[in-house]
Amino acid sequence: MPTLQRWRGRVHGVPRGVDLAVLYVLVVLGVFVALHTQSHPDRARFVQESSTNLVNLRRSPFRVIVLSSVVVPGKAGLLILVPLAAGLVLVQRWLGRAATVVAFGFGHVGATLVVATVLAAGLTHGRLDPSVARAPDVGVSYGLACLLGLLVARVPRWARLPTSLLPLAGLVAVLLAEPDFTALGHIVALVIGFGLAVLVHRGAEPVARSRPAGTGAGAGAGAVAD
Predict the structure, then answer these.
(1) What is residue 211's DSSP assignment?
(2) Residue whose C-alpha is closest to residue 150's, from 212, 220, 101
(3) pLDDT per residue over 92-145, tens digit each?
(4) Fold classification of 15-209 (topology level)
(5) Rounded to an integer, what is the distance from CA 74 to the centroid of its chain?
(6) Which residue, 3, 44, 140, 219, is most buried by CB atoms nearer than 10 A?
(7) Are the C-beta atoms of residues 106 and 196 closer than 8 Å to each other?
(8) pLDDT, tens only, 186-214
């Protein structure tokens, strides 16, 4: 019993809203360390087999969608864990654990499926090289892009339009300058996040209006910044 009480005390001592970020970062780092204990050929094979390319999506879609979200193949890619952790913490403190998981999943899965559809259409019409069907596509950036798009709802109303247009314009510029399916995936994930932000904002308005006068200022503003 004393051991259980100490464990509970430690859990309650964890800052609110950081558990998802800590867990996710630890999983990604664990996969990264395990991956880099293998030889280069084995590492490359694992990344290829974890990719959400067309070949893998046809064979084992659920497996690769899950695996691809925790695989960071290079050391430089670990830098993305910093904004990812910040995004997870901000969204979890705002909307809760379940909503954060759903939003991240929407971004990762939604962008993956849209990119796969575009690639399949391009291959069917002979507009793309057949090698794209096996091109590696792993990482956490689709989910992160969706979280960032969702967080636009927390920005003051006057700043929402520029806050939305700047990253979107940047991604579109990258796509136009060097057409690549991952750039398209990031645009799709960001737009999914914008859509979720609209839904959350509209859902919060009736709640704010239903609160008695004098009680909604703190809670209403805490739900969605205006």
Answers:
(1) S
(2) 101
(3) 999 999 999 999 999 999 999 999 999 999 999 888 888 888 888 888 999 999
(4) Rhomboid-like fold (1.20.1540)
(5) 18
(6) 140
(7) yes
(8) 999 999 999 999 998 776 665 545 555 54
Return the residue matching tokens 């799709």: 188
Compute the distance between CA of residue 28 and CA of residue 34 in angstroms, rounded to an integer: 10
Region for 136 from its dihedrals, namely left if φ exceeds 0, alpha if ψ lies in -120 to 50, beta otherwise? beta
Residues 6+ apart with CB under 8 A from 44: none
Domain chopping of the chain, boundaries = 15-209
What are the structure tokens assigned to 39, written together?
């030889």
d(CA 90, CA 88): 6
What is residue 93's three-state secondary structure?
A: helix
Per-residue pLDDT tens over the stretch 31-54: 999 998 988 899 999 999 999 999
